[in-house]
Amino acid sequence: MNEGEPDIQLPLTWIGPEEVPIQLVNQMICQFNQDEFILTFGQMAPPLLLGTDEQKLEQAEQIAYVAVKPLARLAMTQARVRELIAVLEANLANYEQYQQQIRGGDQGWPT
Q1: Is 63 helix (H, G, I), strand (E, B) or coil?
Q2: Which of the 8 DSSP states describes residue 5?
Q3: For residue 41, is pLDDT > 70?
């Protein structure tokens, strides 16, 4: 915003997030380049190893690598990364509070 310009703020509304498929992410990479952070999210399925422990070990020794399927790559500024961290920490705290309430017998969502 330039000096002298009015501070205009409009409300935001999320439209259609329930239409986007939910993907399981179990692998993550974070890199930075100049003023942006690049977050890569992926999914890895462990190889199927069958038999005795000895047979599983033998099978595992034949595997050169386990592939990770990239699902999304996102770039964010430092300010947005800090926002993401704050959102995740707040959500984690709410989840932990909810879990404590469940263990205590209260089935309500935290406020």
Answers
A1: coil
A2: S
A3: yes
Q: Which of 79, 74, 47 is nearest to 62 (CA)?
A: 47
82-101 residue pLDDT tens: 999 999 999 999 999 999 99
Dist CA 71 CA 44 (whole Å): 10
- Give the start-to-end residue ranges of the domains of the chain: 23-103
Residue type (1 letter), 102:
I
Q: Is the pLDDT reported for residue 106 higher than 90?
A: no
Going through 45-93 in order, the beta strands assigned E by DSSP cover 68-77
**Quick check: 111 pLDDT over 60?**
no
Neighbours of 71 (CB within 10 A): 14
pTM comes to 0.75
Q: Kind and range of the H or E element at 8?
A: none
H helix or E strand, kind and range, residue 15: none
